[in-house]
Amino acid sequence: MVTFVVGEEAAGRRLDLALSDAAGRPRAQVRRWIDAGRVTCNGAAARASHKVRAGDVLEARPPEPVPSELKPQDIPLVVLFEDEDVIAVDKPAGMVVHPAPGHPDGTLVNALLEHCGDLAGVGGVLRPGIVHRLDRGTSGVIVAAKNDAAHRALAEQFRDHSIERVYRALVRALPGADAGRIDSPIGRHRSDRKRMSVATRSGRAAATRWRVLRRFPASGQSWLEIRPETGRTHQIRVHLASAGMPISGDPVYGRRDRDRLLERPALHAAVLAFDHPRTGARMRLEAPEPPDLAEALTALARREGRA
What we know:
Helices cover 21% and strands 26% of the residues. It is of the alpha+beta class. It has two domains: 2-60, Roll (Structural Genomics Hypothetical 15.5 Kd Protein In mrcA-pckA Intergenic Region, Chain A); 84-307, Pseudouridine synthase (2-Layer Sandwich). The strands form three sheets. Strands 5, 6, 7, 8, 9, 12, 13, 14 and 15 form a nine-stranded mixed beta sheet that branches. Helix 1 (15-23) crosses helix 2. The relative contact order is 0.13. The model has no long low-confidence stretch (mean pLDDT 89).
């Protein structure tokens, strides 16, 4: 049994949404708990759509972990840090984090199961050990939990926004300012459910800070440092595009690139800092720019020399 007390910030939200955030679990998973009668609000069963109030006591009885049917796969990993509780890797662009329709294997989860061998049931059957994710086309640091206690501790840090995340991105714009902050709610696109948008009626609060590291006037592009304050789906890509700074190579939220230097969005998760779930020591892990991104930056710098 896991118990949560609804705070003022969650008052008025749907039960499934409030519990999803509190437990650090996907909304669909929480809905299954509710439908199975495994969740109560103040001791009584409640629907997923029930609006919670501050002070309400939510109790959840998650089902026992089911052994994963996913197959371990011998996929090379660049391990940045590993101990008995967590493992952090430098995910290459093109690798999907967990199995999904169209990507049943060859994922980071398959690689972690082979490398660690002890993740069954941690965080869910299809996403063992996964606490957060990076889009398929995004490279960089990602951390996974190796036991339930570590999973809960890391999920809480992501929920409380105490995790430091630093990204770098190449955008097709030359911002007039050297830095800025984008504060726009993000939700599902009104007509395309596979996309996210700031033009939505049901968006969730989202904020992203950015600053220019270098401008490439000859190519009309800029190299940015991005620090997301929240963790919404596609947040950085959506926010930058909405501010007129689409990420280079982004086929969904970007512009059509005539001289595309990359075959994927030029977005890299450079830094991830968190408190170790067992020791409390602050961990700061960094991943260098991968070769394709480094080569693109070099090419842009050469153009500046010829301009």
